């Protein structure tokens, strides 16, 4: 029996990641003596990537790169899709601050999406794959990762009392 739990992480563009402070952890003696269960590799039922960008050509090229990388690593590729419509944002501003209200300028920007699913991955494979595609993330593209982890049922749930 396995139990599902969802884990979600968010990777932004390379510039934002460079600005984030690096956290260095020190290993204490208590963390060095972990039990055998902690050393077992995690299993993910599903890893879903959401890729966002302003240029559809760059987004399509990056999606192709991610799929080719997954094929080279022999990963189980699930569904890959991109919605037909982009998210539109419009902003209208007055050309002049105080006078001539009917002279306005409109600005618009669009956000395109692409979704990819990968099935049945181990934790080490997933971390290596995600680190590689995140390092090759082009400028102006954001990556969001959602993982569905398989976990064993706790012992107190597994044991069913026998009634006579």
From TrEMBL:
GO terms for cellular component: mitochondrial small ribosomal subunit. Pfam families: Ribosomal_S10 (PF00338). Residues 48-146 form the Small ribosomal subunit protein uS10 domain. Keywords: Mitochondrion, Ribonucleoprotein, Ribosomal protein. It is found in: Mitochondrion. InterPro entries: Ribosomal_uS10_dom, Ribosomal_uS10_dom_sf, Ribosomal_uS10m. Belongs to the universal ribosomal protein uS10 family. This is Small ribosomal subunit protein uS10m. The lineage of its organism: Eukaryota, Metazoa, Ecdysozoa, Arthropoda, Hexapoda.
């Amino acid at each position: 029996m396995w139990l599902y739990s969802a884990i979600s992480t968010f990777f932004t563009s390379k510039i934002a990641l460079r600005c984030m402070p690096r956290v260095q952890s020190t290993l204490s003696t208590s963390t060095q003596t972990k039990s055998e269960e902690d050393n077992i590799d995690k299993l993910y039922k599903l890893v879903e990537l959401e890729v966002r960008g302003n240029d559809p050509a760059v987004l399509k090229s990056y999606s192709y790169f991610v799929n080719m990388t997954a094929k080279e690593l022999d990963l189980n590729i699930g569904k890959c899709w991109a919605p037909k419509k982009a998210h539109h944002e419009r902003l209208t501003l007055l050309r002049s601050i105080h006078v001539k209200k009917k002279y306005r300028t409109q600005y618009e920007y669009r956000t395109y999406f692409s979704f990819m699913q990968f099935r049945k991955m181990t934790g080490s494979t997933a971390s290596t794959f995600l680190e590689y595609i995140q390092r090759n993330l082009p400028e102006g593209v954001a990556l969001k990762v959602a993982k569905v982890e398989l976990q064993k049922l706790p012992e107190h749930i597994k044991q069913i009392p026998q009634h006579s």
